[in-house]
Amino acid sequence: MHIKFKSHIHIMAKLISLKKGLDINISGSAPVGTPANVCPATCAVVPDDFKGIVPKMDVKEGDTVLVGTPLFHDKQFYDIKVVSPVAGTVKAIVRGERRKLERILIEPSQTPDECINLDAKCSSDPVKAQRLLLDSGIWAMIRQRPYGIVPRPGGLARDIFITAFDSAPLAPDHEAMLADSLPMIESAVKFLQPLTSGHIYIGVRPGSRIEAVKGAEVIAFEGPHPAGNAGVQICNVKPVNKGEQVWTLDLPTAVRLGGLVTTGKLSYDTIVAVTGCKIKQPKYIKTKIGADMASVVAGNIDGDEHIRLIAGNVLTGIPVGIDHFLRYPYSQVTAIPEGDDRTDFLGWASLSTEKMSVNHSFPGHFLKRPFCPDARINGGRRAMIMSGVYEKVLPMDIMPEYLIKACLAKNLDRMEQLGIYEIIPEDIALCEYVDPSKLELQKILQDGIDYIYNELS
C-alpha cells in the first residue's frame, strides 16, 4: 500500500494506492444512461439478507402495507425493523423447513410509493437519530464490522465508512447514476455525525466528483478489485480491533437516508445494473428493492442455453431463478452461461482463446478483451495448497491461508490473532476465484465468523 496526497482546489485529499487485487474482465457491462423504469409484479423481502437478525413477524397474509410498514423485527432487539419497500398487499409468507421464514411477498398497489409518516428532522441527539434509522428500516441496510451483521442499537460506532464505488466485475457505477446526489450525501453525513465518536470516511475513486463533503473525510482508493470493498478500505485507513465497532453503508443507502432527511419521504427505489454476457442489452433500470427477476430481465436473456442468473456480481452474488427476486444490496443482476451443457475439446486443458486465465495457463491471458466465463469450477475440490496465491489478490494486512485453517479448526484465539474481526466473505471472494484447491472459502469464513459470534455473544 502506498499513501500519497492528491491536490485539488481548496482541499488535500488522501490517495491510497492498492497494488494487490484483480480486475476480472467480463463482457456485458451496462453503459451509463437514463435508467428505464420497471414496475415489478411482485416484491420480496428475504430475512437471510439481514445477517444477525432473528425475524419475528409483524404482518400476516392479506394485510395492506405502505412503504416503511414494519414486516418483521428482530426477536432479541425489538427496535430493529425490516420494512416494506413498496405499498401494496402481503401476498404470501413463505416458510421452509422447520418453519424458517424464507421470504415475504408483496403485490404492489396502484400507488406503490405511498409511505408511512416519519419525523425526519435532522437531530444532534444520537437517540433520536437512531430512532429514525430504526423506524425507517434504513438501520437494517447498515452493516457492522466485526461480523458483517446489522448493528445492535444503543451504542456509537468508532467510525462510519461510506463506500461510494463498487469495484466488482460489471459493478454499477453508483456515482455516475447518482450524479446529482451530493446534497443528499451531505445531509446523510450531517445526520450520521452524532452516531459516531470518531470520523465519517467516504471512499471514492481518483477523479471523483465527490471531492469534499462537510463533516466527512474523503479518501480516494486507486487499484484493482477489491478496492471498493468496505473491509479493504477500513483495513487500509484504520483497522478494526477487538471490542471496536465500525459501521458501513454504500452510496445508494447514504443517498436514501439523505433523501429521507431532506424531503421527509422514504423511498426504496433502487437503480440496478442488468449485466453479463448473456444479457441482450445490458442497461440500468430503476425499480423497487426486492423486485421479481421476471420483471428485471424481461425479454433480455440471450440464447437458449442453460443460464446462471445471479442477484449481485459473479464473485459474491446469489444464484437465483427467473421466479426469484433481487437480493441485498439490490444494485446488480448478472447473467452468464451455466456451462453444464457445454463440451470443450480437451476439457480444462483446452488452449482456446475464449478461456480466462489469471496466470499464463491459457492464451486468453494475453488478450486484453472481455470474456464470457461460465459457472464451472473446471476441476474437483482437493486438499488446501499453501501456495501464497491468496495474498496476491487481498490488499489487507491479513494472512488468509492461516485464517482459513483457523476457521476450519474453530480455534478462537488463532482466529482473533489473524484478523477475523476485520474481514467478511466478500473480501476473500477473489481468493476463492484464484484458489487452485477449489475450496469454498467464503462459506468457510462465514462459518468461522458465525462460530466466534455465537461463542462470544
Written account of the structure:
α3 packs across α5 and α7 crosses α10 (441-456). The longest helix is centred in the C-terminal third of the chain and has 16 residues, at 441-456. The chain folds into 3 domains: 2-30 and 120-133 and 149-263, no CATH class; 37-116 and 273-339, no CATH class; 390-456, no CATH class. The two termini are 34 Å apart. The strands form 4 sheets. Strands 1-2-14-13-12-15-11 form a 7-stranded mixed beta sheet. It has a 6-stranded mixed beta sheet with strand order 3-17-16-20-18-19, with no helix packed on it. It has a 4-stranded antiparallel beta sheet with strand order 4-10-9-6, with no helix packed on it. With 457 residues, it is α/β, with parallel strands linked by helices. It contains 10 helices and 20 strands. It has helices at 126-136, 174-177, 182-192, 230-237, 251-263, 293-296, 400-409, 412-417, 429-434, 441-456, and strands at residues 2-8, 11-17, 36-37, 43-45, 55-57, 64-65, 70-74, 81-83, 88-95, 101-108, 143-145, 159-163, 200-204, 217-222, 246-250, 269-275, 283-288, 307-311, 318-320, 332-337. The model is unreliable at 1-12 (pLDDT under 50).
How far apart, in Å, are the first and last alpha carbons? 34 Å
What is the H/E string?
EEEEEEEEEEHEEHHEEHEHEEHEEEHHHH
Structural class: alpha/beta
Our count of domains comes out at 3
Number of strands: 20
Rg computed from alpha carbons, rounded to a whole number of angstroms: 22 Å
Strand fraction band? Answer: 15-25%
Sheet with the most strands: spatial strand order: 1-2-14-13-12-15-11
Coarse morphology: globular
Q: Which bin fits the share of residues in helices?
A: 10-25%
Main beta sheet strand tally, sense and closure = 7 strands, mixed
Low-confidence stretches: 1-12
Number of helical regions: 10
Average pLDDT score: 91
